[in-house]
Each structure stands twice: as structure tokens, then as C-alpha cells.
Amino acid sequence: MTKPKAAPRARYTMEFKQEAVRLVEGGQSIAAVGRTLGVVDQTLFNWVKAKREGKLSGADSKPVSAEQMEITRLRAELARVTMERDILGKATAYFAKAAK
User: Sign of the CA dihedral 39, 40, 43, 49?
Assistant: First the structure.
């Protein structure tokens, strides 16, 4: 059997990381910022820690435009809302079945 290929590792620009860290330092929770931006909580925690130590660095790739960042944010929000809709649909079916 062949091994399944691992998903390509996400690479984030310095600007993206700095904005994410700014949101966390501005009072939002790591979980909330992670959901909004589509970043794993542990990754975001590592960025905040690196920023405090002065070691935060970005990927050496092309800069991400504001439109691309907005698209990423909207995709993450769509995934969250879709998941919420599915959960509410299942809950509705469950309680409708239990009421009979």
C-alpha cells in the first residue's frame, strides 16, 4: 500500500502573522482569532509567543494582497457557518423525532 500524501504545509506572510498577533493582543481570544482567520490555535499561540520573544518571522514567499486575505477569511467564515447550519439541522431533526 502507498502512503497518502500529507497536505502541503501552509505558509503565512509576516503581515498576516502580525495582524493575527495584533488581534490577540487587542483582547480577542486565540480561539476566536483562529476561527476567523482559519489558523490552528496552537499555531497562533506560537506566533504570539514568538512575537513576545522578538523572533516572529514570515514566509519568504510573495506578499498576500488584501483581497487574498479577505478571501481566506471569508472561506473560513463560510466553513464555520456551514458547520453551524449542519449542526442545527441535525438538532432540529433530533428534537422533532423526540417530540413524537
Answer: positive
3-state SS of the chain? CCCCCCCCCCCCCHHHHHHHHHHHHCCCCHHHHHHHHCCCHHHHHHHHHHHHHCCCCCCCCCCCCHHHHHHHHHHHHHHHHHHHHHHHHHHHHHHHHHHC
% of the chain exceeding 70 in pLDDT: 88
Using one digit for the tens of pLDDT, what is the confidence trace for 34-48? 998 889 999 999 999
C-alpha cell of 71? 478571501
Which cell numbers in the block locate residue 82? Answer: 456551514
Nearest CA to 29 out of 15, 17, 44, 43 is that of 44
Spell out the residues 6+ positions from residue 43 whose beta carbon is closer than 8 angstroms to its own: 34
